[in-house]
Amino acid sequence: MRVTMSASSRLKRFRSEHRRLYYGVSILLVIGCVMVIVREVYGPNGYLTYRRQRREHRALEQRISELRRENQQLENQVKALKSDPKAIERVARERMHLARPGEIIYMVSGDSGKPPASAANSSAATKP
To answer: Are 105 and 99 in contact (CB under 8 A)?
Structure first.
């Protein structure tokens, strides 16, 4: 015995299958979009990586400009030491503690007014 479907039941069945297919494709598209968004934000070349690299780039550019300024200052000091006798004298006095004939150099320590340990020991040893 053969049962034939009426046109209305076939239409209902077609719409039902079509609706399931539509929902399935929609769900797959949503999942695909979510995956793409997650990859673009968190992936190896994603937004967060881009922001971190941009911060590092700015910090490196700032460091480069600081080093260029320091380099320029050092070049100016080298030129001054090669040609300016006053600059040479200043360095000799500050770093090598040199003095002109007849000058006396007094050095004050940064400690709290206490004499150095070697001076305290030598003065205590000379007292009777």
So the answer is: yes
